[in-house]
Amino acid sequence: MSLRRTSILALLLFLGGTLAAGQTFARVDDSQRQELMPDFTIHKPLPTLAPEIALQAFLQHTTEQRTKLAGYQDETTVTAELPDTQQKGEYQLQRVYTAQPRSLSFTNAHFTGDGFVKTNVLTRLLQSEVDHVEKDDQANTAVNFKNYKFNFRGVETDGGQQLFIFQVKPRHKTPGLFKGTIFLDAQSASLRRMEGTLVKSPSFFIKDLEFVQDFEDVDGFTFPTTLHSKAKTRIVGRVLVNVIHRAYKVNHATTTTGSDTVAATQTVQ
Q: Phi then psi for 265, rounded to 5 degrees?
């Protein structure tokens, strides 16, 4: 599922230090103390946004990312398992997206596992993602007010990070929309996680599909890092799919000055 991403409103900086247990210090007089005293700058945590402000900021940047992102590459691992038949397979590949012309391709693909999983699950999954991007129907599945209703459900703390919880309900049963929950960073408004179930099956062969997807900010954009999904099918029973993205290389939209065109690229491991 392709989604609009949200950029960082602010960065939270931390400054810390540790002292070795049992460490002793020599006695110094006042004239030496100022010279030896380290210069610490304390960075206070950013204030928490109001939930409605965070939601507005997230939705705004999901739209902006579409115009500011020229493309990206990442290293992706896709694993599929059929518990009922004890078959599994894994693709390791490089994922390459370009905005103009809009395209998604996979290179340096290496597969291990059962051929049935490769042909009937993983290959079809990757092809459906390519079709979704190249048909440019992302507006029909974007997380925005046109496609969804949002209800604030509270705050959750995950690893010391406060997350706003919003229940999302689709306004219509378009393939690709889901019913579930999104989690936004309470300080930056960045998307951190979404989970739920698709409201309409993408295929006659799939009866139910549930997923949990995590996100991180990379160079001002928000990208998926992991996806865990499970589905019930009419032919092979249960299907479990896990996706891991890493080592993003981001291309910003080009800017033109006179006859010069400049594009910025950043790689993040």
A: -130, 135
Q: What single DSSP character describes residue 138?
A: G
Q: Which residues of 220-253 are buried (b: 16+ CB within 10 A; e: fewer)?
A: bbbbbbbbebbbebeebeebebebbbeebbbbbe
Residue with tokens 């894994």: 90
In the structure encoding, which two tokens stand for residue 6, read together?
């949200």
Tens place of pLDDT for every residue, the chain, 269 residues?
333 333 322 222 222 222 222 232 233 344 443 444 444 444 445 568 999 999 999 999 998 998 899 999 999 999 999 999 999 999 999 999 999 888 999 999 999 999 999 998 999 889 988 888 888 667 788 899 999 999 999 999 988 889 999 999 999 988 889 999 999 999 999 999 999 999 987 666 777 889 999 999 999 999 999 999 999 888 888 999 999 999 999 999 875 444 343 344 444 44
Strand runs labelled E in the chain = 69-82, 87-98, 103-113, 148-158, 161-170, 178-185, 191-198, 206-218, 221-233, 238-252, 255-257, 260-262, 265-268
Q: What is the dihedral of CA 147, 202, 216, 109, to 10 degrees?
A: -150
Residue type, 136: D
DSSP per residue, 41-100: ---PPPPPPPHHHHHHHHHHHHHHHHHHEEEEEEEEEEEEEETTTTEEEEEEEEEEEETT
